Structure formats: C-alpha cells, structure tokens
Amino acid sequence: YAITYTGEELRTDEELVLINLIHLARDNNLQQSVDFAPYKFMRDYLDWSASKHNYIRLKDSILRLSASNLTIGVVRDQQRSVRLKGQSLVRSFEYEDTLTGEPLSSRYKP
C-alpha cells in the first residue's frame, strides 16, 4: 500500500472540522450531502463562538480540506499492477451568506 497526501498543510482546525463533519454525516449515507448551519455546527461540534473570525475560520478550513487529495495505491498482483484511488477530503461544498455577510447554511459532501 502507498498513501499519498497532496495539498496545503492541514492544521488542528482542519482535523477538528473534518472529524466533526464525518460525525455529522455518519447517520446520513456518506455518499449524500449534509446540510448544516455554520452557527450550530460551530456551537455543537467545534465549541467555537459565533464570531466573524470563527465563521471565516470554518470556511477557510473547509476550503483547505477541499483543496487536498488523498491517494491510496494498492499492488494488485505479482506483476506489480497498481490500482490508485484518489479523492479530496471534502469533495464539494456550498457556502451561502446574505448581503450582510451572515452565513445561512453550508452543504458538505464527504
């Protein structure tokens, strides 16, 4: 096996956000999108206050996760045939705000 990560250096914030997004999605089919309100996600899962700084912090963490790629390679037979599978840690996301800049909702797809 060979596991390769490509992308920006991930920090503690990204680890915390990713783990909690997976936790939020676990009751849902992981192939489907998960909708959440950033305020509630920060309050219930991240223990962050609802400050403008933390809204930006959450959005930036999801951006870094979506700009990454994890590739897993498997040797399939003795002829050294290799099968690779790569995917971003966050396949896609939508982030919507009003004209005032207050976040309304986010959609995450694992």
Short description:
This protein has helices at residues 12-25, 38-46, 52-66; strands at residues 2-6, 34-36, 69-75, 82-87, 92-97, 103-109.
Could you list some keywords that capture this structure?
single chain, 3-stranded antiparallel β-sheet, 3 helices, alpha+beta, 110 residues, elongated
Model description:
This protein has 110 residues and is an alpha+beta fold. 35% of the residues lie in helices and 31% in strands. The chain has three helices and six strands, in the order βαβααββββ. β5 and β6 form a beta hairpin. The longest helix is centred in the middle third of the chain and has 15 residues. The two termini are 23 Å apart.
Task: Count helical runs.
Answer: 3
The SSE string, one letter per element, is EHEHHEEEE
Tell me the β content.
25-35%
* Shape category: elongated
Structural class: alpha+beta
Q: If strands are numbered along the chain, what order do they take across the biggest sheet? A: 1-3-4
Return Rg in Å.
Answer: 16 Å
Biggest sheet, in brief? 3 strands, antiparallel
Query: How far apart, in Å, are the first and last alpha carbons?
Result: 23 Å
Number of extended strands? 6
Average residue pLDDT: 80
Helical content stands at: 25-40%
Low-confidence stretches: none
Topology:
Layout lengths: L1 E5 L5 H14 L8 E3 L1 H9 L5 H15 L2 E7 L6 E6 L4 E6 L5 E7 L1
Antiparallel strand pairs: 1-3, 2-6, 3-4, 5-6
